[in-house]
Amino acid sequence: MSTPASSVPRALRTVDAHHHLWRYTPADFGWLTDEMASLRRDFLPADLVDALASASVDATVAVQARQSLEETDFLLACAAATPAIVGVVGWVPLTSPELPGILDRLSNNPRLAGVREIAQGQPAGFLDDPALNAGIAQLTPRSLTYDILIYEHQLPEAIRLVDRHPAQSFILDHAAKPRIASGDLEPWATHLRELARRPNVTCKLSGLVTEAHWHTWSPDTLRPFLDLCAEAFGPRRLLAGSDWPVCLVASSYARWWTVLRSYFAFFSAEEQSRIFAANAIETYRLQS
Q: Within a 13 Å sphere around the CA of 196, how many CA atoms are in the beta-carbon half?
């Protein structure tokens, strides 16, 4: 049962619905290119707390960056020791016959909000895999969300995935990574609108600056893409997030939150409350 917006604690003004933590090793983070060399270091809860203070962010959802159960346990341990981390989106082996037992163990932890895989860059048809879909079906009775991490060309697969699981809660990460650097709205816009017709999908406004030109983007660069997300999903199905520390290659943490708050400044107070806190609390069933 979702949390009514009216019951969201007044002190909880902003929830970062998407960030990472890691102990850096070259083997686990080979995707950090030379252009991202500044991220080749540890990012731990103490670093996160400093970032939150710089932007007046009150609570967070930590999201997996490695596909291992060790990663999920690491994030849950960080959450247990860090009051600001009120939810975790971990990883589980969705195609494994051992999945039920793994989910039973992890579901005992109230901080586990959902699971995610790194589906971006996978071969065509990855989200259509019957074994994957059987695993996702096991999330629904446990009230665990599934974060969809894809590139914009995978949106048709995501639509088919959602249609197979009408009772499952899905969160689209980074608005499906539109081609902001090139300024191309289509076919992303058409596919995003179609996905948004499914009421069990919410959309994270995170990770957008890294899809733009890292050193030359401006709020005006992002505006057409934010406009489309706001139009398609509306204030009740948008979640504000940062994708920290990945976002640091293009923006400071504080600057990103200034951009989001400025964009939504003309929305009503209730709509801002939903986008910046209540939607994340309800979607992820966070215990603040």
A: 21
